[in-house]
Amino acid sequence: MTDKKKIALAACSGMSPYGLVARVTSTDIVAENDNIVSICMGATAADKEGFITLIKKYPIIAINGCENNCTTKILEQKGVKATKNLNVLEELDKVNLKPLDVSRLDEEGEICVEYLKKKIKKEIDR
Which end of the chain is more exposed for a tag (fewer CB within 10 A), N or C? Predict the structure, then answer.
């Protein structure tokens, strides 16, 4: 039985500054909310036991890092359609924010994370 009160975030795991912002944003939101779980995209793509069941259990917000939309594509390959698809690169371009580092958040990266957290929380509250 699906717990309709919970929602899942599936964040990009790519090696770009936008992927890092996607992961940190997702991690922060999950840590701040008991009703939100995180999906490991690497384990999902690799068909790790239990993850296929997990991605079908809760509504998912896919947080794609760039125009490749790998998170959304991996979910679709596994037979799951995200309830919302968010593209970090597009969202940050709209407000002229640009993370710079692929492995460490600097001040600009933290600003990007805070902006996206607010945007995703609005989606969750809908």
Answer: N
